[in-house]
Structures are given as structure tokens and as C-alpha cells.
Amino acid sequence: MKELFIADLMGFEEGKQFDSFFLVLAKQQRTTKTNKPYLNLILGDKTGQIEARVWELSDPRIAKEFARGEIVKVRGSFSRYEDRGQVKVDQLRRALTGEADKMDMLPATTRDVGVLWSELEATVASVTNADLKRLLNALLADSAIAQNFREAPAARQLHHAWLGGLLEHVVSLLGLADRVAGHYAVLDRDLLVTGVVLHDIGKIRELEWETGFDYTVEGVLLGHIQMGVDLVEKTIAGLPGFPDRLRTLVLHMILSHHGKLEFGSPKLPMIPEALVLNFVDDLDAKMQAMASEFEKCAREGKAADELTGKVWALDNRQLLNTKGWLKGGE
Amino acid sequence: MKELFIADLMGFEEGKQFDSFFLVLAKQQRTTKTNKPYLNLILGDKTGQIEARVWELSDPRIAKEFARGEIVKVRGSFSRYEDRGQVKVDQLRRALTGEADKMDMLPATTRDVGVLWSELEATVASVTNADLKRLLNALLADSAIAQNFREAPAARQLHHAWLGGLLEHVVSLLGLADRVAGHYAVLDRDLLVTGVVLHDIGKIRELEWETGFDYTVEGVLLGHIQMGVDLVEKTIAGLPGFPDRLRTLVLHMILSHHGKLEFGSPKLPMIPEALVLNFVDDLDAKMQAMASEFEKCAREGKAADELTGKVWALDNRQLLNTKGWLKGGE
Amino acid sequence: MKELFIADLMGFEEGKQFDSFFLVLAKQQRTTKTNKPYLNLILGDKTGQIEARVWELSDPRIAKEFARGEIVKVRGSFSRYEDRGQVKVDQLRRALTGEADKMDMLPATTRDVGVLWSELEATVASVTNADLKRLLNALLADSAIAQNFREAPAARQLHHAWLGGLLEHVVSLLGLADRVAGHYAVLDRDLLVTGVVLHDIGKIRELEWETGFDYTVEGVLLGHIQMGVDLVEKTIAGLPGFPDRLRTLVLHMILSHHGKLEFGSPKLPMIPEALVLNFVDDLDAKMQAMASEFEKCAREGKAADELTGKVWALDNRQLLNTKGWLKGGE
Amino acid sequence: MKELFIADLMGFEEGKQFDSFFLVLAKQQRTTKTNKPYLNLILGDKTGQIEARVWELSDPRIAKEFARGEIVKVRGSFSRYEDRGQVKVDQLRRALTGEADKMDMLPATTRDVGVLWSELEATVASVTNADLKRLLNALLADSAIAQNFREAPAARQLHHAWLGGLLEHVVSLLGLADRVAGHYAVLDRDLLVTGVVLHDIGKIRELEWETGFDYTVEGVLLGHIQMGVDLVEKTIAGLPGFPDRLRTLVLHMILSHHGKLEFGSPKLPMIPEALVLNFVDDLDAKMQAMASEFEKCAREGKAADELTGKVWALDNRQLLNTKGWLKGGE
Amino acid sequence: MKELFIADLMGFEEGKQFDSFFLVLAKQQRTTKTNKPYLNLILGDKTGQIEARVWELSDPRIAKEFARGEIVKVRGSFSRYEDRGQVKVDQLRRALTGEADKMDMLPATTRDVGVLWSELEATVASVTNADLKRLLNALLADSAIAQNFREAPAARQLHHAWLGGLLEHVVSLLGLADRVAGHYAVLDRDLLVTGVVLHDIGKIRELEWETGFDYTVEGVLLGHIQMGVDLVEKTIAGLPGFPDRLRTLVLHMILSHHGKLEFGSPKLPMIPEALVLNFVDDLDAKMQAMASEFEKCAREGKAADELTGKVWALDNRQLLNTKGWLKGGE
Amino acid sequence: MKELFIADLMGFEEGKQFDSFFLVLAKQQRTTKTNKPYLNLILGDKTGQIEARVWELSDPRIAKEFARGEIVKVRGSFSRYEDRGQVKVDQLRRALTGEADKMDMLPATTRDVGVLWSELEATVASVTNADLKRLLNALLADSAIAQNFREAPAARQLHHAWLGGLLEHVVSLLGLADRVAGHYAVLDRDLLVTGVVLHDIGKIRELEWETGFDYTVEGVLLGHIQMGVDLVEKTIAGLPGFPDRLRTLVLHMILSHHGKLEFGSPKLPMIPEALVLNFVDDLDAKMQAMASEFEKCAREGKAADELTGKVWALDNRQLLNTKGWLKGGE
Question: pTM (2 decimals)?
């Protein structure tokens, strides 16, 4: 199995040789200034991406056939140029079945997926409305849906863009939504919980995560809101006696969860539960973006009481880590 | 049957008594300055609306029980006050079954609905793609859908806000779309035609037209785009072997036909047929708004070469009737 | 003391005479069509407002001198016109000192102010950061500030526009913020709590609530954000050794709590606590606006499963009461 | 005459020598890392652009004097670097008069300009309003205007950015406008046709196309809308008895054809013909942008059923080629 | 001549009879609640507008024929209703030629038009660039243009909406522009002065001020920017040898003086003089709007240290009169 | 002292050796393609910035310890690559105290700071309102504030981004404001002058200019508007009897001087002096941006009658130098 990760390479001395498995994220033939052809690759694993070059195309130790999206075994050496690392590839072949685990090849949640799934199931079990419970159970009992729900990232980039990110995002929201539901007597907790579980379920069809994270063509044309609504509509169609009005509210929550027309929700939240769903979803995404930025700055060696750079996901504002800043002033 | 319409009343001399059937659009009890209670009604028929008052609530010739949305027979007399007419009601009772025709009670298309329907069917017959033809035929063959399609207005107010307005709008678009399809070789006419027929089909559920034109609660929560997509999805589910990609394109056209996120389309048009559908839909609505404004000015006695007032549906701009203005200058 | 309130009048039969105290919200001399002068008044108390007319200006039982903002004792009778009530004034004089309580004259929180204040104090007591605790205690220990904080409305109209509204809003936010603080380990609860208590404190100077709720001229020129920052800056100046960086963060939270430049915050939230403050403040205002609208519809006799009208504070969208709608469908 | 084009070079093997004529689009002296000066050129012809380098500045076979905007004869060899080609120049001299045709040097319409011009003349001939016909004939009869109209691109970049592009755009619009005019009885076809022919005529002064496509300084300061209005105003001034009101409408169509103030139209379309002109102009530009993007993707070897990249001229949305996608799914 | 003005009437005791001349701004036949027809008029003179009613239509002392836009002689009496005055008309006839002066009938500048004109001429005389001087002299020497320039209002409502308002606005701007020109050495004073004199000259065609202030149809279709450019283009065409580049700059200043596309300028200011013209024009309009609002508040009896209402021309903000406020605090 | 500046280097022949002092603006270790480490520096002085490289890290003539923000003495040679210069560093050591002047190291005003300060003092002396004069004198008499006011840039980049830029900007505004104050009788010159002097005073805390120009963390969190208000509030607190209303107006001018909420002003200008302050501030910034762009184009060798590139500070519009363009056309 894979024991050496891209993040480890950055600490290597230059020229040191190593073996490991990577996912091929991009493959392009180029020519040097002296007109010699070479391969330029982007290799990835769950800790990051690195550029790699194959200079000797005719070397028999370099596989002729391999494609974007495949896992390869590479022997190579590491060098560093202007703060970025690069791999010089000496040998390369396709990984054999079972040699490498796809979960190692893409960034993945640091949480235990089994634990997250149990938390989701516990919340579903706590729903008291029988119809909503039937609906949630029907979806989670579908093994294809459940498998995708466990694997899917929550986005191609930005917040929760890693395997298991969707589930992690939903579980975090469930906790937050539960807290807010306790504060406002007007809220129907069952409906809010259902909305949280289902609001992004269309992402299991909008995104694909075999070869890096990307949108499917259907996903670009229809969007995860419509795809989620469709999935839920079809599931409800299989539940005899599901109340029409309840169905309308569940669909309304999915449709309106982006909160604004210009964010792609064709409807604004019109019931309290939809309003709260939109708020907790937005807040959680922004808190996650803040946390990611603070981690990135720490990784890049910024002082803990410095401002971050401008963060795209937060309207290009700079951020400050409260604790780091207060400690820095002591 | 109804022989006297509200538009006719405006030409009456004051005080002249008449009998006719009307739809009760509003009913409200009020009090005079001398504390005498009376009923204030809004009565409507297909030619317009008029205010009516019932002064003698205890008169046995005035029905005690009647509600908004019912058709009533009224004996009354007409008066005029500051350019508006008013009816003084002497007798009022609920219409008996069969006495009055609902089609007389709401504004309706001036076109022959049967002819419009034939034009729609002829266009469907001209579709050469077998799958799209199956889809269109399946929808139009559903008698409930077909009945609603023939009756539905295209809007609560603004463009085509009358019975049969949806069908009239679609048939007008079909003609225009056909002309544009002939101009651009890149366009798949069958797909464009399908998009035109289906783009607003959700309006048969978003709107209700029993008692004036209004949105249903479900319509407000979900919108006609989602309701149309659902109707089409379910119809396609009943068509074995309908190609997945074709289904995606048809749904994409419905989803994107408003052309902008802020107009409630969760997706922008990404295929040529969707782009054209958005354009012809928008152009036809604006041409209709222009025509309506010119008619309104003519009815109100404005000179043909005067500017209209500011028109809300056209960004509050004023309009000018080309022909009237040029003739006025001769 | 006042025993009869405006809300009670609406149930009166017309012509019934009564005595009560009211606040004069407006006073205007007008002329009848027959050129007879009369007084048109708006009278208010904590349950609402009503129009009143004084027809006999020379009657010795009508005080000559009284002004907007004064409490008066009125003997009059009630009538109803087009759904609104009106008072015909027979006698009117200024209230004597002690005859009436200002708290009866303006809408006020339905919560017990003493209880709310205790909840605020309990939260302050739970703050563990010694400097923040000093700051909060210093402000609440100032009797003028504390008195204003107990009385001030949170707005002139819209959300929490009643006496004690500011305190009620802050206490509700404290509960919500506490729940959110428990969800995100990154949050400094002390700082968040401090931000919640202080974010709107400038409103005790921006608004005045002697004669109805209005903005002071200084309030319009400077705004409650600047006025709150000033109040906090001056309090901190009296606290020796208060850390500079902590002072900056507290001020930043006040400055940024509206969340967007176009909402009058000169800075966007850049620390996690400021982001959360903006979210809970916005969510609580919107949940309150929803609740108010549902109550208003209930008061006006709308069915519980009808949509509300368009709500200005929520981008003119219509709302639906989840529970009423679901019950209506059973 | 020119027989070898830039598009042909891309198929060459590296190092192969050739001779051809090119337009100098840019010329810049640079220095190698070893401080040796060299010339960097951008050479263009109607099939594209290519970078070229002159390494031996003192070689007598390299002309000393030549400038941006001149046609040169080049002997050189071709190489390829990271997907782009480059020319190494061995000899270079100014082209002699008559050796090369300017029409070969810039991208040009693939349509036959003579045929396009005939189509324009045929449409003008079909105009029945004598005044409008006089106006159009007067403009097209001016040999300088006619020559520019035949040569001008429709834009510096984006849609129809090639010689003859303006004429091609106008002729396409005439066809589309004719189709739309047939659909709406309210439209005055003569006026619409006139608007189509004249709406962009100011571009013959706003743009210059001697040395690549660029805006003139006057064009940047005044814009093609104003320049077109001026041209038409002066032409009308030479037509005795041209009706004032008709002149106003023609000018209004030019002024308003961008459809929005923020797109540079100082007036919004207020007559039906101006509204239609704005729509067909916008639709044709967008259909052209779609077609160009599909062609570009095909040239770049994308699969026919892949999404395109984000297209600037279409609000950065991605596009999908309907036919390619459907075929790909079979 | 006219001796009694509408502003004088407001001080009258009710019922007092008077004679005077007025401009008929509106004329409408209405019916009383008892179905008696009467005429409702809006009468105007330079001090304001007042509603008037003619109850006895058949009275021989009431002229049968008179229209909007005509001057009439009225004998009537004054009454007051809810803060507004009203005239009961006893006699009415058309004014005879010479009986009344149009300048008395519409609001007019309080400045002496002759003096303003002399100031304009003095500034033109101070221009040192011979070509610009020729241009300005040619325009002002045209007696029709000069007469209109002296009479035209600067707007239909909002700033300088009175006879002579355009001239007053231009003369004020000339003073301000001269001061700014003295501050920035980069500015070409002659060009700036020319821009100030000409920027709004199209308003003499965009507006008409015979019967109140209104836009002409041509004005609505073309706008004063285009109309001004046209006037200047034609004047320059009559000046042999006028430099092309100078012409372009003068036209650019007119085109760009609104400063933003969305304010109807098809071009943004690109030269320093155009930038300054846009700023002084905008500042002067806003200073005038402030002054008007302060005068209006004073007329309406507001205290000098109260805030004004929300002012539409200043983004609906409230204003405060510095001097009144400071004095009020002493 | 420093005798050789970066601007001088650009005229050097390549390879020529020199000695001079520079400020280290950036310092980064990198690796060549052959894995040899080197230092990449950005060196600055008041005339500009240049890249520099240290190839021999172990050379004893290269100081080991020096940091961003320090002044160093460099011996090196100059080379040129693709229009940019570069320094090869042979020797480098920290500057000794007194060897170099910080004022030489950053761009600084070309005006004499002493003269500018005298102009500021003269204007303050001309203020007739005793309270405002007290306020201004108190601030300028604070030696720390006065020193910072003399040194501070007006911005990090864009307009007046050089040492002394704030003072230069304020003095230019004082001249312009005085001219405008003379034009409008309504203006209180003393208040306007006070607003001009104080509007940006918070920048002495928002910015730091020790090591290049940058924002302080406090500056980013609070902004110069709030920081200026705080400084003025505290100064006023030390002036017994300063009128409350005058204090409110001074603070309002600072708060509102950006003119729009979205530009970071939490209040819009509501008094005439605040409106004028916003206008002259905006105009002066834009005139300065124009002047800078014209100078930059001249430096870069553009013809005087060419358009500039797109200027970010002026909405990305292109500019034209009036005088250059007119002269070019002669």
C-alpha cells in the first residue's frame, strides 16, 4: 500500500529517489527548446499535487499506455524550483489491482467516515415525524446512494472539497441545526433535520470524484439543486401516502437553500426551516473557509498574528486568527 | 346565458337597470359614515371588473350566502363617478348550474382555442425526432394536462393574463421559433420546438384560474420551472428507452428559459436551442407588452402619436407607436 | 392608572363612551369641506394607534394647550369606518403627574424586563476573560446606560420596535450565540458574548423613545455603530491596562456587525467571532420578522395555511407558516 | 502572391524552411540572458498569428527599417514549443508594391463579399418607403462608405472580428430581421431593415483595420453609435424633404440598439422596430460566439460531447454542442 | 398685467373674491356623487399651482372653449381644505393678446436674465482659443438659439426647473469651473469653458416650456446629449477650418458629461476637462437640490435645526442645514 | 549619503559596477534549475524598485543577517532583460546608523514638506471659528501627530502613495476647497476647511511606512475613518466647552467623506460642507490619477497623442492628454 505521500516529498533533500503510487490528474506531451519531446504530468494523492516530468520516452521502464484518471507506480527523484517541488520520473507503470487504494489518491476527510455515518443515522433515528423518517430511511437504505453519500466531496474546490466532504458537511450542519432548533420554538426540528440531510444530496450526481473532483456534464446542465429534487421526488413517489404538503415543503427547502436567486436557488426561503437551513449552510461554509485559510497560513509559515491574504470565498476580505493575534500581543 | 358584459355597462346612461351574471372577485362588509353597514363587491367577467354595492343587506331579494369565486346573478343599476363606473345592486342570487359559463367570467383569449390547439398539434406532428415526438404526444394525450393547457393563463397579470393565454403564447412562440430555426443551421428544430411547447407547462400547476387568476401555494413554494420539470420527468419515466442525454437537454431548456439566475432560472442557457428559446420567449413577452400598452392608450383616448406612460414590464420606459407617430406627422 | 387600551376599543360597539390616557403622537388642525376647523390627532398607547377628532375646538372641556409627545386624558366615543376605528373626542386635558405611566403609552416587550436583565447579568458573570468582564461590568454599572439599555427599542419600526426591544433582542442573541459557540471550537466565547452585548449599544443614543420612536439628529448624522464604538472606547479609556489588541477586536465586532458595506458597516467581519455575530444578528432579526408577520396574519383573520403578504424586511417575499400549512392539509 | 499561410505552418516538420508574406503586428527589441539583443515579432495573416525571432540583427539579409503595420517577405524555419509554433527568421524585407494583397494579411470573412453586397443591395431594393430607400441608396452610393462597409470588421475581437465582418453581420441580421418582421404585423419592415443596415455603420470610423484591428482615438472618444448617427444625420441633410419624424425614428434605432444604458446606448428602445433590432443584434452576436467557441474546441481537439471552457462573451458560462453531445451518447 | 399670484392666494381669507390671469395646466370633466358634471382645472403661474373647480358649466360667463396651455382670465374665490387651497371659479375667459405675459405664467429664475446673458458673453469673450471662440460666438449669434437659451428651464422638475434655469445653471457652472481651472495647471480653460456653455444646449430641443415644462417626443427618443451634439456638429460644419481633433474633444465633453453609462452618457470622461465638467455639473446640481430642500422646509415651517425629509435627488438621504442646526444649539 | 538612485541605473550600460544604499523590500531564497541556492531580493529607493540576485551565498562579503525593512549597502552590476533591469550583487552589508537617510529610501513628495506645512498652518490660522481653530491647533500641536502627518503617504498605492503624500493631498484640497467655498454662499468655510484637514487623519494610524507602505493590522480591522474619528473625539474631549453640535458635524464630515456606503463611509454626506468635501476629495484623487498616468506614459515613451492604457483607478477607462493630442494634430 501507499506509504509515501506528496506532502512528505516537500521535506526531501533534492535528488533523493523514492517509489510510490499516484493518481494521474493530467498528462501532456511537450517539447524542450531543443525540440526534444517529453511528458509533463500532474500527479496527485490525498495530500496534494505535484508536477512530474518523464524525459526518456523510449525507456522501456516507462509504460507507453496510461491515462488521466489511472493510478500509477512511479520511481523518481525530487527537486525543488522556486518554492515548488518537481518529480523526475525514472520508472512508471500502471498500478495492479489491489496495489493501491483509491481513498489514498484524493484528499479525504480526516474524520472517520464510519463514525460520521453513525452520527447521521442517529439523527435520522431521532426524527419523530413518521413520513420524514420513512423518506430519510428510504434514501439511506439505497446502497448506491449511501455509498455515494459517504464518498462524495461537497465541492470541486472551496469548502469541503475532499472525499467524504459532503457527509462531513452534513453532519456538522446537523449539529448546528439542532442547536438552533432548540433556540426557536417555532421550528419543526424534524423538517429542519430532513432539509439538512437532503439539501445537497444532488451533489452525488453533480460531481464525479474518480479522477480528481469535477462536475459531470449533466451536473453542469441541471445542477445539484434540480438533481436533488429529482432524487427526492422519485423516492417519495415510492412511499405510499406521503402527504402532498409535506413533500412540497421538503422540495421547497432543497430549492431555496442557496438563499438568493443569483446564487442559483430558483426560490427564496419562505418557511422558517428553510430560512434557518440557508443560514446554517452559509455560516458553516464560511467558518470552514476561515479555518482552511488559517491552516494554509500556518502551513506557509505566516506568523499567527498576521492577517491572511484576501480570501475569495469571503468576498476577498482578509482574515485574522483571533487567538493567534491576542497571543501575539501578550 | 350571459348577454350583457361589463364593457357594455360603461356605455349605459346612469340609473338604467339591467340583469346579468358575474364572478365575485371580492366581497367585503363596510360601514357608511353614518354607521350603516353595506357590502362592497368586485364583480368581474371576461371584459373587465366593476365595483358594486349592496345597501340593503336585509332585503330578502339579496342572497345571504355567496362567496368569492362564485358566479352570481345580479339585478342592478349603473352609475359613474370620476371616470369609473359602479353598480348599485337591487337583487342578487347564486347562479344555478348551467345558467352561466365560466369562460364568460374571466378574460379569455380572443383567438379560437380549437384553432390554436390544432396549430400546436400540427407542430408536434412535424417533429421528426421519434423520442421528442413520443414525449410531446404523451403529454398532450393526457386529458387533464391538455384541458389545463387549453385553459391556463400565461401569467397572473402582465403578458397573456387571460384564459387560453398560455396556449396562445406557446403557439405564437412556435411560429417565431420556426422562423429563427430556419435562419441558423446549427439549431436542432425538434429540440427547439419541444422546448417551446414545454417551457411554461408548469404554469398549469403554478396558477389557478377558478376565481380570478392567482398562484397556488405550491406554485409559490416551488415555481413553474420546477413544476414543469417534474411533469416532464414523470412523463419521460413512462417512456421506455428515452435517451438519457436527450432528457437532460429537454430539462435544461426548461430550467434555463428565464435566461438569468436573478429571473429565477437556476441555470443559464448553455446550448444553442436554450439560448434561442430564452430570446424568443423574452421578445414575445415584450412585443405583447408593447401591443397591450398601445391598445390601452387607444382605449383611454390618447392621441396615436403621443408617448405612452412608463411601462413597468419594459423597465419603466415610455413607448411610441411607430405608425401612429409617422401618420401624425404627415 | 390606565385600564383601557386601544386594542380594547376595537371590540367596542359604536358610540360607546369611555375614558382613558393616551400619548399624543400627532396633532394637526384641518378644515371640513364646509370650512369648519377641527383637530385631527393620532393617539397611541402600548397596544397600538388610533385616529381621533376634536370637532368643538371652543368647548371649554377641550384643553387649549397640549402638544405632540404629551400624555392626555380623553373622554370620547368610538366609531368604525372601513375597517379602521376612530375616536370622537368629547373632553381632553393633559395628564397630571403620576396619573399615567409612560410604559403604558408605547408598545413594550411582553417579557419581564427584570428577568431579561438578570439573564444579561448572568451571561456577563459567566465571562472568564477578566478584561472583557471589566468592560461589560463597567458599562452595565453606569446607571444612565443601564436605564437606557432597559428601555430602548431595537429599532424605529421593523424588528423589536418596542420598549425593551433592544434588551430582548440582545438576550435572545446571547442564547443563540452560546449555542453556536458550543459548536465551533475555534470561537472565543467571551469575545462573542461581549460583541453580542455591545453591538447595538449605540442605539441608546441613536434612538429616542419619549414621543414615539424616532432617530435623534445626532443619530442620523453619526449612526449607532459609531455611537456604540464611541461609548465603548470611552469606557475602555477608563480601564487601566486594557489590552490594545483586545480593544481593537471589540471595536471591530461593533463596526462590522452589519456584515456588508452597503448595510452601513464600514468594515467586513474578519475574525470568526465577528462573522458569527453578523449571522446570529441577521438570523434573529429575520426569525423575529417571520414571527411578527405570522402573528399579524392571525390577528387579521387569515387562514393559518395561507401565504402571508409580501414582507418588506425579507426582500418582499411571501411567507408560509409551516405548522399551519401542514395542519391545514390533514 | 501569398501561397503559404500561418495555419499551414502548424503542420510543418520542425526546421523546414519556407518563404511567405506577413503583416507585422508587433515588433520589439529584447535581450537574451546572455545580453545579446534580438527582435521579437508577431507576424500575422488571415489565418492567424505567430511569434517570430530575428537573432542576427546585423545580417545584411535582414532589413533595418520596417515597422508595425507593414507587409514583409520572410524566409525562415518553423519550430514548435509547448503547443505553440515559432518562426526563426533568416531573411526579411519589406514587400514591394503589388507583391502581396492586404486581404490575405488579416482574417477575413469566408463568405464572398460580392455576394454579401448583392444581398444587401437586394434588401435595399425591396424597401418600399421612398424616403428610407433614398437614405439607404445615398449611403451605399458613396464609394468611400461602400468600400469601408465592405472591408470593416464588426469588432476588434469577439464576434465577427475579421475583414468583411460588419457586412457579414448585417446580412445575417437582415435575414433574421425579415423572418421576425413576418411574424409581427405591428412591425414596419422598411424601418426595421433600415435600422439593421445602419445600426453599426459608425464602426467604419470607430475601427481601423490597416494594421490589425484597433479602435481609432476618435472612435474611443465618440463611439460608433455617435459616429453612425452623425453619418446618417449628414446624409439626411442632403435629402430634401426627408420627413423629420422618420429621421428621428432612424436615429433613435441607432442610438438604442445596444438595449441598455450600461451597454453604451444613451436611450432604450421605445418603438417596436428598435426593440426587435436590439434583440436580433444581441441574438446573432451570441449565436456567432457559440459557433466560434464550438469551432475553437474542435480545432483544439476537444471531444464533441465535452463542455467548452467558460466563454467571456456569454457571461463566462460553459457551452455544449447539442449535436455532438447527442451523438456522443448513442 | 398680472398683479395677483397664486402664492398670494394662500394668505387670503376664505371666500374672498379676486381676478387674475393663469395658465391652464390641466382640464378634466368630472361628476359629483350626485352625478352633476363639473370641471376640474389645474391653474398655474410662476409662483405655483392651484386646483380650481367650475361648478356651473352652463353659466354664460364661463367660456366654452379653452384648452390646456392657454392663458385664461379668472374671477373666483378662494377656500382651503386640508392644507391645500382651492379656487371656485365664477367667471372664466381666454386672455386677450397682450393682456398677460407668458413669463408671469411659469416659474422663472429670480436672477435678471439680461445680467446672466452678459456674464455668459463676458466669459465667451475671455476665451483665447480662436476656434472655440468662433464656435461659441456662432451659436450665441443665432437668434433662435439665443432666445431659447435664455428661456429654457434646465429640467422638467428637480434642479433649475424654471424659465431661465438653463442659463442660470450654465452661468453658475462657469464661475465654479473657472475656480477649478485656476487650481489645476493641466486644465485647458478654453476647452472647459466651451464644455460648460455647450454641455446642456440640447435641452433647448429636448424640453418645451410653452404649457408647463415637458419633454418633446423627439427629446424622449433622442435625448439632449444627442441633440446638443447634433447642434454643435452642424454649427462646426459651417466654420471652415475648424480643427478635427478639437471638434472631437468638444463633442466628447458633451457626450460624457453625465459621467456614467447608466446616467445616459454613452462615453466616460477621458480627458481632464471632461472629468472636471462632469464633477462641477454634478456638484452644482446637488448643491442646488440642497438649497431648494432647505427653502422648502423653511416655507413649510420646519424648525431650522430639524432634518429635512428624504430627498430623492440625493439618494433619498435626509439633509441638515448647518447654520440652522448650529444656531439652534446655542 | 545616497547619490545613486534606481532610476539612474536604467540608463547604465550593462555590467557597469556601482555602490549604493537601498531598502530591502523583499528577500527570498530560491534554487536554480541546477539546484544551486541563491537569494532573490527586491531593493527599493525613492525612485523605484529593482530585482537583485545574490549568487554566492557563502561569499564573506555578503552579510548573513539582514531582513526585509532594513537599509543595506550594495556593490553590484547592472543588467537588462526583457525591458526590466536587474542587479547582480557582489557585496552587501547592513547600512550603519547615519549612513543613509530613510527619506531617500521610499518615494516621497517632490514638494518641500516645510512649505506644505506652512501652507497648512496658514490655512488653520485663517479659521475664524474659535472652537474649530482650537481643535485644529490642538491636533497640529501634538508633536507625534504632526510628525506623522508630515511623513504619511495618502495610500499604499494609487493616488499620493509616497512619503508626504497625505500632507500634499490635504494642502491641494485646501486650495480647491477654498475656491469652491467662495462660490457657494451657503458654505461654512471654517467647517469645510476643518473637514479637509481632518478627513484622512486616521491614515497616520491605518498605514505604516517604515518598510514600504502597508496597512497596519489595526488599520485593516478598524479603518482610517474610525481611527480618525477616534483621534478627533479624544482631542475634543480635552477641549472644555467644545459645542456638542459642532463636534457632531466634524465627526459627520469624517464619517461621510467617501460619499457612499459601498466605499466604506457608514453615513452619506448630509450637510453642504460634507457634500463638497466628498466631491473635492474625489476630484483631486482622480485628477492626480490622470496626471500620474500621463507621466507614466511619457516615461514609457508613448506618443503624447496616444490613448493611455486602461486605468484601474478610473473604472478601467483609457485617457487622453488634451494638450498632447491637440498638438499632435497640428
Answer: 0.89
